[in-house]
Amino acid sequence: MKAAVIGAGIGGIATAIRLQHAGFQVEVFEASEKAGGKLNQFQRDDFRFDMGPSLFTLPNLVEELYALKGLKPYDFFAYNKLDILCKYFYEDGTNLIAFANPDIFADETGKKTIDTKSKIIKFLKHCSDIYNITAETFLFNSLHDFRNYISWHTLKAIPKLYKINTLKKMHEFNKSYFSDRRLVQLFNRYATYNGSNPFRCPATLNVIAHLENNIGAYFPSKGMYSIAESLYQLSVDSGVIYHFNSKVNEIIINNRKATGILVNNEQKDFDVMVSDVDVMSLYNHLLPSIVIPKRIKTAEMSTSALTFYWGINNEFPELKLHNILFTQGQKEEFECLFQQKTIYFDPTIYIFISSKEVKSDAPAGNENWYVMVNAPENIGQKWGSMIQETRKNIIRKINRILKTDIQKHILFEEILDPDKIEKTTSSYHGSLYGPASNSIASAFYRHPNFTKQIKNLYFSGGSVHPGGGIPLCLASAKIIDKKIRKDYKIKK
User: Dihedrals φ, ψ of 303, to 5°?
Assistant: First the structure.
């Protein structure tokens, strides 16, 4: 049978690998000139920048794709476990280093905050419990297939569901747990990993802290984009055919069945189609005759990002690979993002410097700075003026906390804003993760990996279940693989 994958984001590439392994003849159609989607890179002078995702967790999901072919991942894709996850900077002068070893991290917080070492250990154990209870049901299987609710792993989890704190907000739970506001703010930050608001999202999302702090964070030896490059090459070696600069105009529907696609105004027939396109863009442009599900159409969107890429003619030894400069007004920052649809004057700043790990990403004595702040979804704001004002605020904050004059070290600058994200990746309103997870029901309202409206059509990527980010996009491919094997009775 023939399968078409629309979009060569990380979820689309992983889906293509899995379907090829299942026995399909797979073709991938990508509107841009290369694979990766939001996982992208660019080069300027002697500097290389990863443009999108910058954190690598759950590497086993990449390893599984190599294992399908009987290959050892490290022979083709090298990565290292980080000893330091992130360095946090506060306006009061406190610096906290999140060591990968939970015990050492707990020592660090015990010395520098008013909470005890045991508090951190206990909290991370709680985050681990949430993962162990929910992961198999909520992350690696479909929430929209009744058969998964009568599986052994789901039935076993039911008596423990009270532990996952669905009825409490993340900030509410964290504030009741920690006495030190700096730790509350640190762990609230994990809500932003899927573009949500810690003051409104369920405390269940503390599970995200487990992925990083207990399982670990990693970094590819050639930078983040090498994840896409290596999996693309694996898929090509497996027999997947790619068509770049090939924009799909429409998915052809006959009698509630997807039968093919219209690409560059030419019809191509397929037995199975998988969309790795943002689900709202898909309905708006590729499925014109299909009514958009109301819960999808009215969903609150996740945040976007405003990112400055700076070539820096200096080295800052006090900074690590991942760094956070916290705002003094966390609640106000999220009110700006979600209610006022603007950027707070004192934003939390994320600085990612891949040259700390990949020395060839910047010339000797220089660094490549990826400076990002959370931004609201794109609803037609005056981005030009907002970008300039935010840039001034970022410069002031960096100078104040790092005690430097960063402007004189900036050799050049590139900017990626929500409007550009929407235009270049077809992400609805420029949102990075599709719908936000700001309610208990968000996980169930997220678009499923299949639709009962149309047979033969499946959905992968960050805008559908289980969510955005590299690991969850890879998980969506795994869910689709299971679903298609059941639907087509494939035992291979």
Answer: -75, 165
